[in-house]
Predict the 3D structure of the following.
Amino acid sequence: MSGEAFALLAAVAFALGAVLSRRFMEGPNPVLPEAGVFVSMLTDAVVFTPLTLWEVGRGALQHLTPASFALFLVGGVSGTVVGRNLAYLSVQRIGPSRSTAVRLVNVVFSTFLGLIALRELPRPLQITGAALITAGLWWVLSEPNPSSTHGIDPWGVVAAAGAAFAFALGDTLRRRALGFTPFPFLGASIGAWVALVAQVAWFTARGLRVRGVRIAWHVDVVASALANTAAILLLFLALQRTAVANAAVLYNLQVLLVILLSRRVLRERIGLRLVAGSLVCLLGTAAVLFG
């Protein structure tokens, strides 16, 4: 049962990170989403590097091929740079609860990207799960937004869906790379450092200074970054000890935890449609994963 416990702890850590990310983007001195992403990437790189050195000591570099390096690199750009920036942007625009619920389509994207790569047709239960996720998301997005007179921000929804696809693509590429080089921390470190360089380049292109976006001493930014890094490590430990589908289903319970924490920490008003739609989405993800 240790794998299942790690998956649940990963869900708690991710939920905490998502809620804290919304909090540091609000208030009289809001932090830019991309600044929060930068701190998150930096935390990943700092934590993953010593773990990577341990893997290098076990001969990881001997198994690193040009193909696996390229897949880890592109997976990092897709999953970390594109996915994380869009995810933080969606949290800013539609809140952590709706953003996390919309990003549950990641399961559908991951499954169908894998099916395309393997040239397999989707199974009936997977199609049913995709339909349930679609219905659940319609319910989630039909919930009136009490913080806005204009309803749900469509660009926030697009950003969340885009993040889900970027995460799915990144995960698919990393899984393919691990087939050549079965050292996950090495792959994670390559992706983290490449993402960090890309994020700094993005700052430079926009004329922003890393020191000038109020990131270093903001408690919520650092706490959110640490929670996200902890979630990644806990999920990795879960995947080592239990089936992928079991870990993914338990990890996706994060959406309910985000709703609970949003109500407690952010004082958001949570409607029944949001909760019910999220539950339907969770049923859909379970159907896709076990189908």
